[in-house]
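Hi C.,

You asked whether I'd gotten around to modeling the 450-residue construct. I have! Everything is below, sequence then structure, no commentary in between.
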Amino acid sequence: MFKVYTKSSFRMHLLVICGGLLLLFVCLFMFSKSVSAHGYVDSPASRAIQCKNGLNTNCGSIIYEPQSLEGLKGFPAAGPADGKIASAGLAAFANLDQQSATRWNKASMSSGTNTFTWKFTARHATTSYRYFITKADWNPNAPLTRAQLDLTPFCTVQGNGQQPPATLSHSCNVPARTGYHIILAVWDIADTPNAWYIAIDAQFGPSDNSAPSTPSNLTAGTVGTTTAALSWGASTDNNAVAGYEIYSGSNTTPIATVPSNQLNVNLTNLTGGTTYNLTVKAFDSSGNRSPASNSVQITTVQVPVDTTPPTNPSGLHVMGTAGSYSLTLMWNASTDNVGIAGYRIYSGNSVIATVTGTATEKLLTGLSPNTQYTFTVRAFDPSLNESGNSNVITVTTAQGPSAAPWAANTAYAVNTLVSYNGAIYKCTQPHTSLAGWEPSNVPALWQLQP
């Protein structure tokens, strides 16, 4: 009925158990590594792999996993938001979304037939591989958006639901381009809701080190309290001028940028009663900048001394029905001898929100369910004179639904409710969450609830 182990047999039994456990842990480790890694374009060298190889700097954590640029598929109708395409919408890789003509090292390419080589570390069943390119007149100093891209792929290779080999090459006919452009390679997966988004920074033709000519005859037009109009003569370039940047004094960051077909600008957000020394530089698609134009000095109009506060807002009320975590306030506009700069919303004696400009409504979020709040609104003018209180309203938020906090690496079904940053969201597509897919970041997956 009972087994009796000798010392040697006990040791052997223990070794067998430990060996089995070790083998299990190794398998689990290998499996976890395989499912967390996927694929990238190795040639022409993509932005991510150039980060790993040290040719791009200040890249963040992508240097450890250039194969992990995974986001929702369906591009361009779905997928990463504009301005977050290069990072696949993942906050952990947000450095990749930085964009300027000189930010990234470029792979030399020519228009016509090119070979794109993928390397895969997890070989998903594939729907297709698609390649997009920026428009001929794109702005390399603006964020990468759908408007910057030709949204018809110049090359599509069907995956037929099959797993690719570890290395796979495609021969594609790249459209005619000159200078710096971005190619976006999209790997659409057949058996998950996701795709991979790979940005390739490409230099078409020989490297361009020639700067545009200096803009001429910079002239100031109408100058207001916070605005000023400028115009100048066009620059020329050995390839093409990509745009113009306006600088103030010795600042190295432009205060405005316009495309190459615009030879004037109306500057805004200046400070009243302030002197500015303004210049213009032209730049091309390779990031070369011209010398500064002639300098123009302007002085904005002094803001008149104003001690008169706006009239009190009136008619404060809740628009519609208060939700569990949010509600919308609305009120009648105030008047002022100079103008209304905005409104402050108070809960008791604390400012909980500010509306700038002349809007007279505000969605408040982050409230607590079944809680009573008291609100007033005050107007303020450009001199920061503040009105008295509007009428006082007291509102009780609705009883909150049952919702667990959102978490990464969790499977969510349609209509599941989660809480995140004080708000409730409803799942609209079944998916398994990832870091960076917080409900406020992916409206394609989560709908904010009132």
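If it helps when you're writing up: The helical segments are 7-35, 47-52.

Thanks,
B.
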